[in-house]
Amino acid sequence: MTQWTEEAIERRIRDWTRDNPIQFVKPQRKDQCVQTKCEVPPTPVVVHDVEMPFLSMVNFMVKGALASIPALLILFIIGLICWAALLGPLVRIATFSH
Question: Are 13 and 41 a contacting pair, CB within 8 Å?
């Protein structure tokens, strides 16, 4: 993990505020940022590798697959309602007899 020096943080804030027209409010204390809702400069992140045990990865994927089942059921029900709303009047018109 990269350790940031106070000078590097100050330089990054200076560079960011110079390039962005919005005003940056630097908190005096760590808890002050939450109170004043200050702007924090975006930090670019690039993930090169994820180290995760195989069984933990399998567990994560199984949980994701199981979590998608209720979502698919809800989408299926919404699809049925849409089809019924669109095709119901057409079937009624087609089978209408005098």
Answer: yes
